[in-house]
Structure formats: structure tokens, C-alpha cells
Amino acid sequence: MDTIQSYIKANKDRFINELVELLKIPSISADSNYKNEVLKTAQAVKLSLERAGCEHVEICETDGHPIVYGEKIIHSDLPTVLVYGHYDVQPPDPLNLWHSPPFEPVIQTTNKHPEGAIFARGASDDKGQMFMHVKAMELMTSTNQLPCNVKFMIEGEEEVGSSNLSIFVKNHREKLKNDVILISDTGMIANDTPSITTGLRGLSYVEVEVTGPNRDLHSGLYGGAVANPINILSKMIASMHDENNHITIPGFYDKVEELSDMERAEMAKAPFNLENYKKALNIDAVHGEAGYSTHERTSIRPTLDVNGIWGGYTGEGAKTVIPSKAYAKISMRLVPHQNWEEITQLFTAYFERIAPEGVTVKVSPHHGGQGYVTPIDHIGYQAASKAYTDTFGKTPIPQRSGGSIPIVSLFEKELKSKTILMGFGLDSDAIHSPNEHFGIFNFLKGIETIPLFFKYFTQFYKE
Ligand code: BES
Ligand code: MN
Ligand code: MN
To answer: How far apart are CA 343 and CA 221, in angstroms?
Structure first.
């Protein structure tokens, strides 16, 4: 056994216990009631970085939740890896669907995780994955095998759009200077089918409001004679897809990059079983844009989805009313080259144009970000691929993901460096859902693979 494996074997119970402690703190960034818990989590992350051998570890205040920064600079001739992650988590609700409380971690085995998985909010997204880097750092410094410089930047606002981190990055370009950025905040295909994420989708998130009459009305006295904002909003939303499930907003697809048949054939080689996919979701059919496979629909194609819709009476029993207002939150997942601000404008103009007489509409943009692609000929990708090949015994498959980490494209723009997305989660980890979990196998595999990335990256950098 080599030093990496023996160090993990000797320390794995402690690693797991430390992660469990971190998962107990409810760092819900979206809810201001948890501000103090978020700060406590930042302090715990700071302490863990110091114990892992980082220097100059600090909590950087922002207008929102703080950023934890630490570094270990060995020599200016050596390359620098910037590790990014987030310690904030999504709200855990609906609470009644959790089998155990979201902030009281439990370890349980599942079909996919015979070695056990930790169930808690943030287990996979992203505390568990971020913590793999802290433990890999500890491993490298305690066994004298840190081959290059490292900077850690762990933020507390990823789940709410990273707007304060954007400002921090723009103001600290020199401090954050690096040769490659390393992130574990994505997934892989399966524990026996390693993959490396090579693309992220962009995002435009908006809220819409449709207003009809100046007050809620009796639906008998007025029904049939005035526009009902909920009826109208439903129709407007429905008209945003055509019979082929193409999005009807003019100009929406103008900048979408069409992949060549060869690239699509390459993508289709990734293992995927439609029957299992449907079974896991308890659906009898998939649904999406005509002419594209399920995997293409969730990676190289843009989407428009309603995330929430409300208005009128939703309480117990019945109330006969025509509401004055209706609302919806809508997200558009974008692909590289689509500009999220431009898409937000196209959406707004279209939404205003299709609104019929009798209502007024308002569109409020929330947040957004650009998509991202990692070239597989980059030495960072090559180093990651070699590291996975060593630890999984198989060459990892490059695969674009459907999720978004908007800060990644900002890193490229402001810091001029590429990001390598070494995610060890599984799609079935239920991130953002009740019963989120992270496999112990995945957690330990990550800790084992990361030091090899550092080793090969430094080696390729020098060549
Ligand atoms: N870690 C996820 C993104 C992710 C997960 C990418 C799995 C690829 C595979 C991240 O924390 C996240 O949830 N991002 C948000 C966007 C953000 C602006 C709130 C998302 O994708 O909805
Ligand atoms: Mn995440
Ligand atoms: Mn998330």
C-alpha cells in the first residue's frame, strides 16, 4: 500500500467524524435567520484549513456571508492550484420527507452505497466534497508530498448566486492568481464508471408578476368578464414551448452551439439506461426537445422551466375568487455562448409582448451566469484523468453536466484560468432534495484521487 492509501486507512474514521460535525451546522445561506450558523460554519472551515497545514487562513467579510481563504506557498517557481468550494447549503424543506433530520447526519447503506452513505443536507453539495480537499491537503502536508502551491477559497453564498464572491474575485486578482482551479461540486456517472465534468450550463433566473383587476373579485359576479391573471399566466407559460418542446422566445437559440454528428456520437457512448432512469424517477416516459437524447437534453441543450407558481386562494377548502395577481419563478438553463443577460432581455421583451390586453406584467431578473467548457487537452484535465485512472483503474469519461456553477466562467474571465471539475457525487445523491447523501466510498475516493491530481499537474506543468 502506498502512503496515500495507508494514511486514509489509518485516518478514515476521524475524517468521517469531522465531516459529520461540519454537517451538523445548518449553513443555509438563503435564510437570514441562519446568518450566525453560516458564520459558525465559516469558522469551522477556517480551523480545519489551519489544521490541514494552510497558512494565513482568514475569514474575509463581504456584504453577505464570509469567504474563507487560506494558502500554502512553497516556491514561486512551482505551479499554484486554487481550490474552490462552498460551505453553504440549500434550505432542507420539505422537512417531513426526510427519513432523519437534515442536520443530524446518519450513516446508512443503500443499494448504490453498500459501504454506507452520510445522510444530511450538504453531504454531497458541497460540504462533503469540499472537505475531501481539506483532508487531501492534510494528507499531503502530513506525509510531505505537497508538490506545489495551494490556495483555498471556500465561499458561503454559492447557493444564492455568489454575487459577493464575484466582487471579491474582481478585487483580489493578484491574491487569487493561479495556474488552474480545482473544484469538486459536480458528479460522476457511477462508482464503477468514473467521469470528469467538462461543461456546466449557464443560467438566467427571473420572477414574473401578472396583474389583472385592482383587487380579488367574486368569481361569480365578475367571472367571464375580466382577465384572470392565473389563467393568463398559465397560457403565457404554456406558449413558451411549441409542440416539439422548442422554446418559442425569438432569438433564444441564435447563439446555441450545434454539436457535430461526431461529437454527438462520442457523447452517446457514455453509458445510460433509459429504463433505469425512468424507474428511478417513477415516470413512464421522458419528456423534452424533439430530436435530442435525454443526455443531450440535460447537457448541450438549453431549457426553460417554471420553478414555482402561485397566486389566488390556496388555503383549506374553497374560496370563489378571481385573483388580482399571479406569480412564477422561471429558470432558463443555458449552454456555452448564450449570453445570460441577453437571454434575460429576450425573455423580458417576449413576455411583455405576449401579455394580452386586460393584464399588466412585470419581469424581475434574479441572477444568472454563463456556461462553461473545459478543453480535454488542458494539462489540468490530463492530470485529473491520470489521477482517476490510477484510483479507479479505468479512464474517466469526459461528460458535460446540466447543472450550473456561475462563478466558474467569472473565474475564467477575471483570473484567466481554466477550471477542472473533479466531482465525486452521484446524480442519485439527492442534492437540493430531501435525504441528500454522499457515499463513504465517494468521499474516500476523492481524498485518494486529489493528491494524485496535484502530483500529475505539477509534473505536466514542469514538462
Ligand atoms: N453543485 C451545484 C451544481 C451542480 C451539481 C453542477 C451537480 C453539476 C452537477 C451547485 O451548488 C448548484 O446547485 N448550482 C445552482 C446554481 C446556483 C446559481 C444556485 C444550480 O445549478 O441550480
Ligand atoms: Mn454545489
Ligand atoms: Mn447546490
So the answer is: 41
Please check whether residue 68 is in contact with residue 84, taking contact to mean a CB–CB distance below 8 angstroms: no
Contact partners, residue 67, CB within 8 Å, separation at least 6: 42, 59, 60, 153, 154, 155, 156, 164, 165, 168
* 209 pLDDT higher than 70: yes
Question: How distant, in Å, are the alpha carbons of 37, 250, 301, 338, 398 from that of 253?
Answer: 42, 8, 9, 8, 25
d(CA 334, CA 131): 29
pLDDT over 90, % of the chain:
97
> Any idea of the CA torsion for 165, 166, 172, 175, to the nearest 10 degrees?
60
| 359 touches 329 (CB < 8 A) | no
Q: Which ligand is closest to the CA of 201, given by its number?
A: 1
Helix (H) or strand (E) holding 451: helix 440-462
Distance, CA of 107 to CA of 111 (rounded, Å): 14
Per-residue confidence band for 1, with pLDDT thresholds at 50, 70 and 90? low
Alpha carbon of 15 to ligand 2 centroid (Å) = 20
Which has the closest alpha carbon to 380: 451, 461, 302?
461
3 pLDDT band (50/70/90 cuts)? very high
Q: In the numeric block, which cell numbers belong to residue 3?
A: 502512503
CA distance 171 to 219: 55
Pocket test for ligand 1, best of 335, 424, 431, 442 (most atoms within 8 A of CB): 431
DSSP codes of every residue in 355-366: PPTT-EEEEEEE
CB 401 within 8 A of CB 199: yes
CB environment 155-167: b (16+ within 10 A), e (fewer): bbbbbbbbebbbe
pLDDT digits (tens, 9 = 90+) for 349-364: 999 999 999 999 999 9
Which ligand 1 atom sits closest to the C-alpha of 432?
13
CA–CA separation, 458 vs 384, rounded Å? 12
Rounded alpha-carbon distances, angstroms, from residue 327 to 210, 239, 341, 363, 419: 6, 16, 21, 10, 37
> Percent of the chain beyond pLDDT 70?
100
- The span from the CA of 277 to the CA of 365, in Å, is 33
**Ligand 1 center–CA 403 separation, angstroms:** 5
Please state, in angstroms and as integers, the Cα–Cα distance from residue 281 to each residue in 163, 278, 285, 307, 425, following that order. Answer: 33, 5, 10, 18, 18
The whole-number pLDDT of residue 367 equals 87
- As beta bridge partners, residue 134 has none
Residues 6+ apart with CB under 8 A from 293: 268, 272
